[in-house]
Amino acid sequence: MRVLAAMSGGVDSAVAAARAVEAGHEVVGVHMALTRNRAATRSGARGCCSIEDAGDARWAAEILGIPFYVWDLSEEFEERVVADFLSEYRAGRTPNPCVRCNERVKFDVLLERGLALGFDAVVTGHYARLRGGAVAGRPGEANTLELHRAADAAKDQSYVLAVSGREGLSRALFPLGDAPSKAAVRAEAERRGLPVADKPDSYDICFVADGDTRGFLQRSLGAQEGNIVSPDGEVLGTHGGYFGFTVGQRKGLGLTRPAADGRPRYVIETRPRTNEVVVGPAELLRRTVVDGKDLVLLDSPDSLADGVGRQDVTVQVRAHGRPVPADVTVDAAAGTLHAVLRQPLRGLAAGQSVVVYGGDDGGRVLAQATVA
């Protein structure tokens, strides 16, 4: 099978490409250049598109003996990820740029170009497992494809992949899904002589060069002084823009006097229309109901309906968040999801991704939606 290996410059994608070569596939490596200003990108491997990453990816491809190319996807990344990130914060929501990048660039754009060039599938270093269905290189019906958690729960990325849906995932290969640990992947990279074996993991938002998300938002959207208020409307302080705060945030509020009862305050909500940030006690963050829109089904609506009240149905609202038992129903025609939580969640914000898990082991992805 002719496959396109997405090589970020990190150890995971390098080992994934190596495993694809070892499996007998005809592999071509490609590095996605996602930023328009390479000089502004952080160094030291903090982000996933740092200035040294293209060189590291090329070096790994040379060792593997595969062709290698750099594709400039900065325009697509700017339009589909960065612009969406700013638009969501402007609307008072909290987006997950990694979810959007996986959906709109690493799968949509890369796969679209790859298929146009005659490739059969895309190989990435994501930690997740695909079973059954029309998984690339394996027979089966597309409507039986299943996305499952990775063997290594600490590195599992099924949460960010769920938004890609069956169609996108049917042309994907995740060779690291069964890897027992990141340490094992690093050891394998060292055995293979790959130069990125000890490279640190990427973290933070890759297009926020200095890691200061609030500063990035204020520079991009403009400082807008407003009030920090209590739930009953008392003005407690000021801020430079509601978009610089997220629900559940405790630090960086800039308040000079404590609450009357001495308890810490948290961001309860942001109000774009009035440019207000509402803060209050932790109990106001508790949510027992989650509604989602833009539904992506990886299982049938009947299966989810049958799962109402079952203990093996859980929802997760952060990449490495705690799965919470829930009663879940979906409306496939309306593209909505409704979950009643058996345990309350704190700090749930509009714009986050909610993923539903079930199955015999609780690790199968059933659906994904955006918190409304």
UniProtKB/TrEMBL annotation:
<feature type="region of interest" description="Interaction with tRNA">
    <location>
        <begin position="155"/>
        <end position="157"/>
    </location>
</feature>
<feature type="binding site">
    <location>
        <begin position="6"/>
        <end position="13"/>
    </location>
    <ligand>
        <name>ATP</name>
    </ligand>
</feature>
<dbReference type="Pfam" id="PF20258">
    <property type="entry name" value="tRNA_Me_trans_C"/>
</dbReference>
<feature type="site" description="Interaction with tRNA">
    <location>
        <position position="126"/>
    </location>
</feature>
<dbReference type="GO" id="GO:0103016">
    <property type="term" value="F:tRNA-uridine 2-sulfurtransferase activity"/>
</dbReference>
<keyword id="KW-0694">RNA-binding</keyword>
<keyword id="KW-0819">tRNA processing</keyword>
<dbReference type="GO" id="GO:0005524">
    <property type="term" value="F:ATP binding"/>
</dbReference>
<feature type="domain" description="tRNA-specific 2-thiouridylase MnmA-like central">
    <location>
        <begin position="215"/>
        <end position="280"/>
    </location>
</feature>
<dbReference type="Pfam" id="PF20259">
    <property type="entry name" value="tRNA_Me_trans_M"/>
</dbReference>
<dbReference type="InterPro" id="IPR046885">
    <property type="entry name" value="MnmA-like_C"/>
</dbReference>
<keyword id="KW-0808">Transferase</keyword>
<keyword id="KW-0963">Cytoplasm</keyword>
<dbReference type="InterPro" id="IPR046884">
    <property type="entry name" value="MnmA-like_central"/>
</dbReference>
<dbReference type="InterPro" id="IPR004506">
    <property type="entry name" value="MnmA-like"/>
</dbReference>
<dbReference type="Pfam" id="PF03054">
    <property type="entry name" value="tRNA_Me_trans"/>
</dbReference>
<dbReference type="InterPro" id="IPR014729">
    <property type="entry name" value="Rossmann-like_a/b/a_fold"/>
</dbReference>
<comment type="function">
    <text>Catalyzes the 2-thiolation of uridine at the wobble position (U34) of tRNA, leading to the formation of s(2)U34.</text>
</comment>
<feature type="binding site">
    <location>
        <position position="32"/>
    </location>
    <ligand>
        <name>ATP</name>
    </ligand>
</feature>
<protein>
    <recommendedName>
        <fullName>tRNA-specific 2-thiouridylase MnmA</fullName>
        <ecNumber>2.8.1.13</ecNumber>
    </recommendedName>
</protein>
<feature type="active site" description="Nucleophile">
    <location>
        <position position="101"/>
    </location>
</feature>
<keyword id="KW-0067">ATP-binding</keyword>
<dbReference type="GO" id="GO:0000049">
    <property type="term" value="F:tRNA binding"/>
</dbReference>
<comment type="similarity">
    <text>Belongs to the MnmA/TRMU family.</text>
</comment>
<feature type="active site" description="Cysteine persulfide intermediate">
    <location>
        <position position="206"/>
    </location>
</feature>
<dbReference type="InterPro" id="IPR023382">
    <property type="entry name" value="MnmA-like_central_sf"/>
</dbReference>
<dbReference type="GO" id="GO:0005737">
    <property type="term" value="C:cytoplasm"/>
</dbReference>
<feature type="binding site">
    <location>
        <position position="125"/>
    </location>
    <ligand>
        <name>ATP</name>
    </ligand>
</feature>
<keyword id="KW-1015">Disulfide bond</keyword>
<keyword id="KW-0820">tRNA-binding</keyword>
<keyword id="KW-0547">Nucleotide-binding</keyword>
<dbReference type="GO" id="GO:0002143">
    <property type="term" value="P:tRNA wobble position uridine thiolation"/>
</dbReference>
<feature type="site" description="Interaction with tRNA">
    <location>
        <position position="352"/>
    </location>
</feature>
<feature type="domain" description="tRNA-specific 2-thiouridylase MnmA-like C-terminal">
    <location>
        <begin position="310"/>
        <end position="365"/>
    </location>
</feature>
